Amino acid sequence: MVAPIGSPDEAIISQGGLSWAGASHQLVEQPRAADGNKGKYGHVLVIGGSTGKSGAPAMTSLAAMRAGAGLVTAAVPSSILDAVSRFAPELMTHSMAATPPGELASNGVTAQQFEKMIERMTVLAVGPGMGQGPGAEILLEAVLSDTKLPVVIDADGLNTVAANPSLLEKMTEVAKAGRTIVLTPHPGEMARLAAASVAEIQANRLEAARSFVRERGVTLVLKGSRTLVAHPDGTVAVNTSGNPGMAKGGSGDMLTGVIAGLLAQFPNEVARAVEAAVYLHGLAADLAVHEEDEHTLLATDSLKYFAPAFRFRPLRFSDDGQRGYVWLQGLPKKDSMQFPEGAR
User: Fold this and answer.
1) Is the pLDDT of residue 281 over 90?
2) Are strands 236-238 and 228-230 parallel, antiparallel or unpaired?
C-alpha cells in the first residue's frame, strides 16, 4: 500500500526538468467520442522492411493499430509484400521496388511516387527492417525534404541518418523549424547519432539525451532500463514501466508503432503522446510477464495486454496527476498484488 504522507510539493517536484512519463497516461483515459470514425484517429504510414526482415514493419504496423490509429498502411519492398500483408487483415499495404537482395531499390520511390504514397497520411514511421542501402538514403531524403508530416525514425532509419551528415543536418533544420521528429535509438544507435561511444552514452544517459535534443531540435526516446523521453526544450521524462523480458528483437519495432499510433490521434500533444506511448508499451509488457514469464516473453506477446494497459488507472496523489505510485520493475506476483481502493 502506498499513501500520501503530506510531503510539500516543493520537496517532491524535480527542479531539474525531470518528470514521470507515466503521468501522460491521462491522455488515453478519456473515452472516444460517440461520433468518432476512423478518419478522426489518423492514418499511419509505416515504411521499412527487406527480405529476412518482414516482421519488423509488420510489428510496427500491428502496434500502431492496437494503439488506436484509425488506419495503418505498410509500405514495403515488393519482395516481402505478401508476407507483410498476411500479418493482419486490417493492415493495408503499398509495394515499392526492390533490389535483387530484397531491399528498397534506389529507384524504389520517385518524387511522384512518394507524393502519392504520403497522400492522406498523418504520421510516418520509417526504418524498421529497412536496411541501409542506397534506396534507404534516398527515401530518408524524401521524408525529410518533401513532406512536413510528423515522423518517427527508428532502426535502419537512424543508422542511415547517422551515416550521412547531410541527412543529419537536414533533420536538424526541419526539426528546429518546428516539425515533429521523434527518434527512438537504443544506446548503440544513440552512440552513432551523437558520434560517441556506447560507454560514453551509458555513463550519463540523461545528459547525452538532453544535449542531443537541444542541439538537434528533435524528440528523443533513449531506450534501455529507465527509458528517457527528451524534448526539444531539454525537459526529460523518465519511464518506470517495462522489464528485462523486453530485451528481445521486435520490442523496438513495437514501440515505434505505439508512438506513431498515438501521434496520429493526438497530433497537438506531441510530448504527452510520446511519453504515454513509452509508458504504455512497458506497462503492457509488465502485465504480460505478470501472467507469463520474462524469459519467454516475445515482443508480440504484449499486444493482447494493450487493452488492460490502456484501462489501467494509476493512483494519483495530486490534482495535476504528476505523482502517484509506480512499478520500478515488472509487477508483483499475483498472490501479493494489493492495490488501494479505486486503483486497478
Assistant:
1) yes
2) antiparallel
Question: Does residue 3 carry a pLDDT above 90?
Answer: no
CATH of residue 209's domain is 3.40.1190.20
- Block residue for cell numbers 526541419: 174
Residue 89 lies in a domain: yes
Q: Is 134 part of a structural domain of the chain?
A: yes
Number of domains the chain is built from: 1
pTM of the model: 0.91
Count other Cβ atoms within 10 Å, centred on residue 44: 31
Look up the domain containing 225 and give its range.
17-336
Q: 141-161 pLDDT, tens per residue?
A: 999 999 999 999 999 999 999
- 332-341 long-range CB contacts below 8 Å, 24 or more apart? 333/290, 334/290, 338/1, 339/315, 340/1, 340/2, 340/3, 340/315
Strands 71-77 and 43-47: parallel
β-bridge partners, 96:
77
